[in-house]
Amino acid sequence: MQHKFILRGLFTAALISVGLVASAQTIKVGMVNTYSGPNATLGDGIDKGVKLYMKLNADKLPKGVNVELIVRDDGGTNPDKAKQLAQELIVRDKVQMLTGVVWTPNAMAIAPLTAEAKIPFVISNAGASVITTRSPYITRASFTLWQSSYPMGQWAAKKFKRAYIAVTDFSPGHDCEEAFEKAFTAGGGQIVGKARMPFNTDFIPYMQRAKDAKPDVLFVFIPAGRQATQVMKAYGDLGLDKAGIKFIGPGDIVTDEELPSMGDVPLGVISTHHYSAAADRPANKAFVAAWRKEYGDKVIPNFLAVAAYDGMDMIYTAIREQNGKVDPDKTMEIFKRYKNANSPRGPIAIDPETRDIVQNMYIRETRKVNGQLANVELETIPMVKDMWKEFNKK
Question: Fewer CB within 10 A of the end CB, N or C, for the chain?
Fold first, then answer.
């Protein structure tokens, strides 16, 4: 008799367990990211930002709902592979949303798939302005290069007369070049030379050309990561600083995680960006503290990590507002009205017309703080929209 009661109890427990499993709702989120290749450090920031958010905010999902993150490695700038991976995530893994993507060419390749399959796509980095125009199911949690480079041109025109521009030769670099030149020349400045550089190149010849042009200021864009350290080294080795040529650019040239590798060359560099790990906002202090607790003091959060973190907040908000039963069109409507007054980078919102992020831009100077290099925010340009879209409104 006792044996029968035990079996009956086990059977009842099994039924309850099956019922719980059956009632659970799993939202599949696919992430195409760069985990290998020479620029894998960029993808690492995204990966860590996403996973930190998920760990800290599991209790913010509706009861019985969980998120399954399915990651794929694009290996770097590889549009064909990125498209293939996204297609597999949509067709085979049946993801309901996509996120990640370091590179603009990869995001552009994925864009048509999101429109065809109606899969909301929250971009964690790729910064060319045009991307969001390629599909109504794309929104961006990161930035555009027009957001940082246009204000940089306005600032520089008040300080300098002659500028040289050097950018990596792909769409984000072209955006930087156009935005900076437009603002700088509108402010009365003169462009004395320009160069477009290959990925992962030897920067010495380009820095030499800039030096020979004798500008007052050198504006540079490279896609962050280790290339930032390499271009900074070339600038220092050729003595452009000693020649009185000021080094400026979007925040990619002094990205936070690379500063410890740069020596003292970046001291005094001026950049325009939406995030600094050194910012003293309470939300950022809490974010950095949580980051260090999870990953250790030697791993520094960068702008990719923060964008990925905020992107997951957008995704969790959409899941929560739909009580776990996500619909692609309802999800995009939620994204369009998304706001967060307390992001680590300051207040952010999505422009409902463009599905692009609106955020503060900060004029920053690289200084030593407690013996360590840091990007110190000097001025705030509040709630900047994507200027390319502002200038190209129909």
Answer: C
